[in-house]
Design a protein that fits this description.
alpha/beta; Arc Repressor Mutant, subunit A; Aspartate Aminotransferase, domain 2; Aspartate Aminotransferase, domain 1; 3 domains; seven-stranded mixed beta sheet; four-stranded antiparallel beta sheet; 18 strands; about 40% helix; DNA binding
Length: about 475
Amino acid sequence: MIDTIWPPDFEKSTGPKYIVLIQSLRGAVRNGQLPIGEKLPPVRELAWQLGITPGTVARAYKMAVEEGLLETTVGRGTFVANTRSEPDLVSDPLLPISQSEDLDLRPVRVPDVGQDRIIRNVLGILSKGCHTPYVGCATSATDLLARQAVVNWVGSDLAGRFGADDVVLAMGAQNASVIALQCCLHGNAPTVLTEAVTFPGVRHAGRLLRAEVIGVEQDQHGLRPDLLEDALRRHGGQVLVTSAQAHSPTTIQTPLERRQEIAELARHYNLQIIEDDCHAIGTADTPSYRALCPDRAWYIGSLTKSVSAALRFGYLVAPEGRAQTARHVAQSNFYGLAQPILDICAELILTGQAERIREQVLKSIRSRVQLAVNVLGSWDIRWRPDLPFIWLRLPQGWRGSTFVRACDAEGIRIKSADEYVLSDGQAPNAVRIALPSDVAEPELRTALELMSDLLSKPHYHAEY
């Protein structure tokens, strides 16, 4: 039936195929070719019939469901909805929409759990009740409330004893990390140590500050202390940049005993530690390096992954006696955060709204992770219910780059381990798969099922 009712002609159409498909769906429903209650083919079946990727079909189905054009029922399928009202839409969206038809499972994005409405409400409250003048740059007096909010948000159990005077605010965790590095690095040939497989931001920050970045191998518990000591003996090193609580891309959490060993090495070799905790969303059950060695550890965090990336609100908790230096560095770079952002974030945290958002974000992440584990659980994956990505170690017959190209051919974008190693490092045979909540669940499930199918047939894709 699908072959004769509404076959969109992709050859005569311009623009992304998912837009062509949704327009064809609208027309068929409007003129009655697809009557109320008509069951549509499953995503993969329709994709095969039309010669397009399943991700394209799933994206069009998602848009049609959001418009009220279609409805989905778990276990039954997708049907034309019982409505004839015209959706209040235009053919060409006023807001920019990605022209790519690929399903992008590379970036980690905070789920939309209604924080836009909450932040707008806060803006309304501040417009009536905030007495901070919006004229000059922020000062240590006007950002005090936001720094006090960070003290409440982070807590002494995680970062040890600290107060608002130990907090320096930044434009996100990456910016905070650069500030900390600027405080720590010195000399003509500064050296940064970090995990051999690590978030690319460490590499970029090192390059920006003309530092040599040395990778230290990890095991299932994180950085190996013996290899860290070996690197310190051979290369020296002024600072270790690490993510002990929630490591991207591997999801590893370093246990307390291992952290204590590394803290002792830091004392012995006069090493500073910068702990980037930006990916940690859930409640920590292990103290950070700032709590274990407060004289030499910097704790970095932000609201980007847990509340809203739009706020660009990051922070660092400096080692004892180092905050003033960090504040001078921050002021030299950008003077300070915009006062409206300071006021919004302080209000969100101190009223408990940020915590409620974080709880809903975690709920959304757990649901996506469970879906991924259900589909890919038979493969060698590392995952945590509080992290919106999984680490997939590939089976024999696949290489990371080859598997990425095979997924690309199916319209699915993922990250190879190559993107997480230093230029002279050896990448493990693995990929990271993000689980964004702005991708419809049927679309995500289809993508994961396609990946599972690819994993089982490596010899079919030797040409990649």
